[in-house]
Amino acid sequence: METTRDLDYPTYDVVVVGGGAAGLSGALALGRARRRVLVLDAGEPRNAPAHGVHGYLGREGIPPSDLLAIARAEVEGYGVRVQTARVRTARPWDRPGTGFVVTSDDGHEVEARRLLVATGLVDDLPDLFGVREHWGSGVLHCPYCHGWEVRDRVLVVVATSGLAAHQALLWRQWTDRVTLVADPALAPPPGDTDRERLEARGVIVVDAPVEAVEGEPGAVRGVRLADGRLLEAEAVVVAGRMRARADVLADLGVTPEEVERAGVLLGSQVPTGPMGATSVPGVWVAGNVADMVAQVVVAAGAGLQAGAGINADLVEEETAAAVATARAKRFEQPWWDERYTAHDAVWSGHVNPQLAAEAADLTPGRALDVGAGEGADALWLASRGWQVTALDFSTVALRRAADRAAAEGLEHRIEWRRADVRGWEPGEQRWDLVTSQFLHLPDGGMVDVVRRLAGAVSPGGTLLVVGHHPDDLGTGLRHGRREWLFTPEDLLPALDPEQWKVEVAEVRARAETRHGHDAATVGDSVLRARRRT
Ligand SMILES: Cc1cc2nc3c(=O)[nH]c(=O)nc-3n(C[C@H](O)[C@H](O)[C@H](O)COP(=O)(O)OP(=O)(O)OC[C@H]3O[C@@H](n4cnc5c(N)ncnc54)[C@H](O)[C@@H]3O)c2cc1C
């Protein structure tokens, strides 16, 4: 099998299979939603034999081919591609995520993230000579499509299903010259109740074997009976079975269901959920393939809805992907380097208040500052006599911090170390104070970090971890998710009580300023613990 990819559009957002009213209407919604759309159409709409499309508000009576030509031009105006092709099959692609490979009869393949199948239905016509020849002109099935055009004319309804009496009574609305011919070889004859109802409405019932529908091209003459009589008619009415044209869906595991009414099998259609979604994610259906009684305007409406449903589904997928990407970036070095590069100073340059409060009375020794950023805490500690190791993964921040240390004459008191704390191990080194101020990680990652930091504290030393409390999200000053922030209690599982005495585990209120004004009262989660000796 040949595999060719369209070079301009290696992957379409949506491939629409079937370019009738439903498919083109879906394509219109999707084209206007700025989606890359390809319509593949075999060019055989169900109503092709009819002279006009009736019941289509605004375009009443327009020839079917004219309506589709207008529709094609409209969708192409929004960048949708419409190609003549018969699709043979579709299968899930073998890449991650939802998507499909669509194969045409000629072996051409295209890829699409979503599928809209609007292939219509097949009218399985009664096996009666002349029916196919006159189908859509002299042989009719739908009074809403053709009733007006044959009003007051002579009609013969050939009973081809158990609903023939109902059908004859319906057509009687348009003309009082209706005959129902009942051939037991074609359908069960009407019962007594139906005969009484038909008689009351003036419908003549003829019980006789039928041989053929007779006439010239474009004009029926009547129904020839097996006994040689001709039941003259200006139009003949039959009922076929309406079978969903769903072969394309078979390899995807979407199968049509049979539809019955009053115990009579009407045909089949593909079951759908809201807006035409099928049971297979990424696959939508619209029009007659999913709704056998849908007329053109209804098929178009279903297509429009399916188009909107598909677009919404793609928006969901794209949003989830954007969140995953943004989240992955946010906790990585390039994102932080970019952030520090974009601003002369990201932080205030002052020591963090909880560090100042907790470390003020400690005897200076060796301190490890994790997530040191632009170095304000490290500088403050150094200025108070601590020998500091300052750790961060942003080279931009560390360079800025080192410059400031040099400018303040504190470079000999601080070692700047580039490391990602998530994989960092203290080795043999130990510090009297290990501090982490406002370092946050997703997926509960801070518990693991605190465990690592705890391993770096000397016996008798202090571990101080401070972060934003989750309730701060309500202030509008914090962004992100609840699980990126932490309470003091969230971190406790990292500390073995036999080795650690928790001295402070509390939330401290603090006024946070923006542009020189108090913006809100926020809560700092403070955990201070001493390593037992
Ligand atoms: C004789 C007749 C007269 C009618 N008159 C009226 C009327 O006056 N008013 C009215 O509202 N309704 C009328 N209808 C009903 C009307 O035909 C349907 O409502 C309408 O066609 C449904 O639109 P659709 O898009 O679902 O299917 P269709 O119009 O049948 O379009 C399906 C398209 O999919 C294409 N296709 C199928 N399989 C494939 C494939 N594997 N690969 C690529 N393309 C494929 C087909 O070639 C076709 O172009 C009439 C029906 C008949 C039979």
What does this structure look like?
This protein has 533 residues and is an alpha/beta fold. It has three domains: 191 residues, FAD/NAD(P)-binding domain (3-Layer(bba) Sandwich); 114 residues, FAD/NAD(P)-binding domain (3-Layer(bba) Sandwich); 196 residues, 3-Layer(aba) Sandwich (Rossmann fold). 26% of the residues lie in helices and 30% in strands. The chain has 13 helices and 26 strands. Strands 1, 2, 3, 4, 5, 6 and 19 form a seven-stranded mixed sheet that branches. Strands 22-21-20-23-24-26-25 form a seven-stranded mixed sheet, sandwiched between helices. The chain has a five-stranded parallel sheet with strand order 8-15-9-10-11. α1 packs parallel to α2. The longest helix has 35 residues. The radius of gyration is 38 Å and the shape is rod-shaped. The N terminus is likely disordered. Bound molecules: flavin-adenine dinucleotide. The site of flavin-adenine dinucleotide has 39 residues, from α1, β2 and α7.
Give structural attributes.
26% helix; seven-stranded mixed β-sheet; binds flavin-adenine dinucleotide; alpha/beta; 13 helices; Rossmann fold; FAD/NAD(P)-binding domain; 26 strands; 30% strand; 3 domains; 533 residues
